[in-house]
Amino acid sequence: MDLSGKVAIITGSGRGLGLAYGKELARNGAAVVINDIDRASADGAVAEIVAAGGRAVAVVTPVGTSEAAGELVATAVETFGRLDVLVTNAGILRDKVVWKMTDEDFDAVIDVHLRGTFTCVREAVLRFREQGGGGRIICIGSPAGQRGNFGQTNYSAAKAGIVGMVRTWAMELQRAGITVNAVCPVAATAMTETIPFLAPHIESMKRGEPLPAIIRRDVGMGTPEDAAGVIAFLASDAAADITGQALSIGGDRLALWSHPQLTATDFHDGGWSAEDIAACWGQTFAGSIESVGEEFPEEVMPK
User: Fold this and answer.
1) Which of 13, 41, 142, 156 is catalytic?
2) One of this protein's Pfam families, by short name (predicted)?
3) Which end of the chain offers a freer environment for a tag, N or C, measured as fewer CB atoms within 10 Å?
4) Helix (H) or strand (E) holding 258
5) Does the annotation count 155 as an active-site position?
6) Which is catalytic among the residues 6, 41, 155, 236?
């Protein structure tokens, strides 16, 4: 995955998954713009990449506004001369059940995840089109956006919206040679420590103990570094023909999410009344109802 001469922006990359992405892109030759809201984290990430022989610069700003997106792209161009890859990773959590979630809880998550992705992608696309030669956009989604998750109305909505935007952008940008894909990682980070059945395994990892195979394979969760290879792959020439897709990665598992498809269809001349629907529902549609939430092996669930 030779990324020599490429320049990448990774939002939310001072620690966790974002830092793992930045280090992997730099290891493969890309110059990287590290972004975080915490100066110490951003500077520490840059120092780590530079110490390993890479090139990096920090931009300390919260994503969401057009001004922040403009600063990120301008820094990439002014420091390294161009922009080739954007990874939109920045995110926050404000988990609550819907009847306790405030407007502020909802807006904060939507602003960082959904609006932050939109504004950064828009700014990067303007640069890509000005440069010519295409580009790579990698938006970070989540299984919560694909399946839903208890207590995460705001986060699930934002992540589902990101994948929806990815599909649209893939169509809009194809002629310009710009690929757009989503990655839905599962890794041991501060954000997954809030999931009760994963917390003990994350604590074990902190003590240097390996994750059991059932977690790495069946749950598909591992370290942030386990999720970084797919970012370098999608940024590379090897992925030039891949666009509009949602990939899942974690631990030992790599998977491809399907797009929503019609699962059952029937027709009724003259349209459907409520009575018509009730009469056919059991035979035609009931067997095709899909579950919600992620389904995990019983062995890892709390007793």
Assistant:
1) 142
2) adh_short_C2
3) C
4) none
5) yes
6) 155
Global model pTM greater than 0.90: yes
pLDDT tens digits, one per residue of 33-56: 999 999 999 999 999 999 999 999
Q: For residue 188, what pLDDT is reported?
A: 81
Q: Which residues contact 191 (CB under 8 A, 6 or more apart)?
A: 16, 91, 93
The rounded distance, in Å, linking the Cα atoms of 116 and 73 is 13
Indicate the average pLDDT of the chain.
95
What pLDDT is stored for residue 160 in this prediction?
A: 98
- Domains delineated in the chain: 7-256 (3.40.50.720)
Please name which of 118, 128, 163 lies closest in space to residue 8, comparing C-alpha atoms: 128
Q: What's the whole-number mean pLDDT along residues 200-217?
A: 85
DSSP state at residue 282: I
C-alpha dihedral (272, 274, 279, 281), degrees to nearest 10? 80
Burial class (CB in 10 A: 0-12, 13-18, 19+), 288: exposed
DSSP string computed for 125-173: HHHHHHH-S-EEEEEE--HHHHH--TTBHHHHHHHHHHHHHHHHHHHHH
With tokens 């793992």, the residue in question is 20
Active-site residue 142, yes or no? yes
- What type of residue is 258? S
